[in-house]
Amino acid sequence: MSMLPPTAVFRFPWEVNSIKEGESVRTFGRLVCYQPDESKATLTAQHASKEHRVFVQTQFVEPFNPIIGAQYLVLGETEMYEGVGVMVRARVLNCVDGVNTALLQKAIAEQRSFFAERESKQGEVAQPQDVT
Amino acid sequence: MQAAAMDPADEPPSMLWGMDPIFSAFARLFVRDILQMTESVQVPGIYFYNLHPIYKVDVLGTVVYKRERDDFFCYGVDDGTGVINCLCWKSNLLKEEEDPSKSGTKHSDAAEGGFDLVAELRKLRQKQRKRCHLEIGELIRVRGPVKTSRQQREITASTYYKVDDPVMAVQIAWMMEVPQLYRLFYDKHFQLDEAGDSAETSLSKATNIIKDFLKQRLVAKFRPYDVQDLLQPLISGRLQTQSAGQEAVAGPSGCQQLNQLLKEVLQVLQDQGTVYRKVKSQDEVYHVTIQDKDLLITVKDIIREDSKREKYAEKGCHILHILSAVRQRYSLNVSKAALELVLQTLECDSDIVSTSDSHYIAF
């Protein structure tokens, strides 16, 4: 029996800190700092003239070649750490330097609005959905 | 994870599934929808999304799970909406191990500095292998039929390969494109036109009846009443279905319907160029374009004469030039569509040849 990991839903970096523990997420940011002794990497992203940080636990994806200043895509589970807050324990950490972040944001928003649209349409039809 | 089962009565009959173009395509559904599709009651192995019959899909996602056996890979693919297992069989090419001794001797035989076939084949095989061996975190594209095995949905890949996406361009394009596909196709209901006697279908049926008649009998010219009776069966059929279990409706009589239909058909045939009215007078006479020998000869003569002139000798005569000449010499009522049919006929008979899309010249 294959045990597939849960779906990693796309989140914006500024949403990560408000996610509860144990959620599988996929997010992105620019690598500003890497502490190999602690297996901790820090990604940042600009939004609404504020800099948002995402902390990443890199134990599972080491060794990786850290390119400071490059854009990275991280996929993993959220964990709460004392003093730090939310950290993403990475299962996948890919360098995607050169990515058009504005376009990526647009694509994520487009996918979300599509699902929201569909859900509201289904709600209108008012069919009882048996969600197990 | 399964959504509520669709009411079996809602399923369209399996005979009609082939009419839905999505059935024959690799549907680019979100993995979430693939996992939630209901399985058909009529034919297990076919699934339904929004009343569309689906059996093969196309996904793009990140590999988050990998299991390798001698014969196959099992990749868990996550596209951000769901994770699904993909069974990817290894092709025979990739299973062969390199035999160093064999390749060694062959290498010495190869021409020096020339095209080394063995080395090239080895490189090709390595490239193919790289495309099929994926690691966790890499992007994979999988196409294939959906199967439910051991109560888990999985895709048996008919095609799979690693996608090189260094700046996420492919993933972004996919995320933008798939909602559009949903809006335009997948979320639209599977419309089936039952064999109804809609106004459009009976018009095309009628047009074909008249066209076939004119062709078979090699009719050169006719008047409306000559072909009127051909359409009678269509009208009687229509009247019968109307009267079957319906109160009398104050509508057009059979005769009026026939006249109306005939008028529409003749208009369609004129628009297509199949027939034309050489002389527009009280007497409604229709000439069948390609049977009009005089017209054919006139057009041939025009092209032949003009091809001799220096102006047209090389490039040929443009169709609009021929059209104005025909209208001057022969009949004002020859339409461009009719002329195109004439030119096609002449070209088939090798009397003229087209030098470009709209230029013609005589031999």
TrEMBL record, chain A:
Q: Which organism is it from?
A: Poecilia formosa (Amazon molly)
Question: Where in or outside the cell is it found?
Answer: Chromosome, Telomere; Nucleus
The entry's cellular-component GO terms read: CST complex
Q: What are the entry keywords? A: Chromosome, DNA-binding, Nucleus, Telomere
Q: Which family does it belong to?
A: Belongs to the TEN1 family.
Single GO biological process annotation from the record: negative regulation of telomere maintenance via telomerase
User: Which molecular function term from Gene Ontology is one that the record holds?
Assistant: single-stranded DNA binding
Q: Please report the name of this protein according to its UniProt entry.
A: CST complex subunit TEN1
Where do transmembrane segments lie in this chain? Answer: none
Query: Which Pfam families does the record associate with it?
Result: Ten1_2
Instruction: Tell me where it mainly resides.
Output: nucleus
From TrEMBL, chain B:
Q: Does the keyword NAD apply?
A: no
CDD domains registered for this protein in UniProt? hOBFC1_like
Q: Assign the protein's first listed, main location to one coarse class.
A: nucleus
Q: What SUPFAM superfamilies does the database record attribute to this sequence?
A: Nucleic acid-binding proteins, Winged helix' DNA-binding domain
* UniProt-recorded Gene Ontology molecular function terms: single-stranded telomeric DNA binding
Report the residue ranges that make up the Stn1 C-terminal domain in this protein: 200-363
Its biological purpose is as follows: Component of the CST complex. The CST complex binds single-stranded DNA with high affinity in a sequence-independent manner, while isolated subunits bind DNA with low affinity by themselves.
One GO BP: telomere maintenance via telomere lengthening
Entry annotated with the keyword Lipid metabolism: no
Q: Which Pfam families match?
A: STN1_2
Compartment(s) where it occurs, according to its Swiss-Prot or TrEMBL record: Chromosome, Telomere; Nucleus
Q: How does it assemble?
A: Component of the CST complex.
Which keywords label this protein? Chromosome, DNA-binding, Nucleus, Telomere
Descriptive protein name: CST complex subunit STN1
Q: Which InterPro entries match?
A: CST_STN1_C, CST_Stn1_wHTH1_sf, NA-bd_OB-fold, RFA2-like, Stn1, WH-like_DNA-bd_sf, WH_DNA-bd_sf
Record the organism.
Poecilia mexicana
For this record, the Gene Ontology CC terms, alphabetical, are: CST complex
